[in-house]
C-alpha cells in the first residue's frame, strides 16, 4: 500500500507546493505548504 509523506508539485515544471500525507485509500492531505507572495 502507498502511504506516508509525499511531495506535492504542480504542472509540467513540477513546481514544489509542499508536503502531504497519503492515506491507505490513496487520498492526499496537506501537511506543510509553501506559499510565495509576489513582491
TrEMBL record:
The organism of origin for this protein: Klebsiella michiganensis
GO biological process, any: pseudouridine synthesis
Every tRNA pseudouridine synthase II TruB subfamily 1 C-terminal domain range: 2-34
One GO MF term: RNA binding
Protein name (record): tRNA pseudouridine(55) synthase TruB
Gene name of the encoded protein: truB
InterPro entries xref list: PUA-like_sf, PUA_sf, tRNA_sdUridine_synth_fam1_C
Amino acid at each position: 500500500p502507498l502511504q506516508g509523506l509525499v511531495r506535492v508539485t504542480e504542472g509540467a515544471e513540477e513546481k514544489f507546493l509542499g508536503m502531504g500525507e497519503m492515506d491507505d485509500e490513496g487520498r492526499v492531505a496537506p501537511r506543510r505548504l509553501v506559499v510565495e507572495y509576489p513582491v
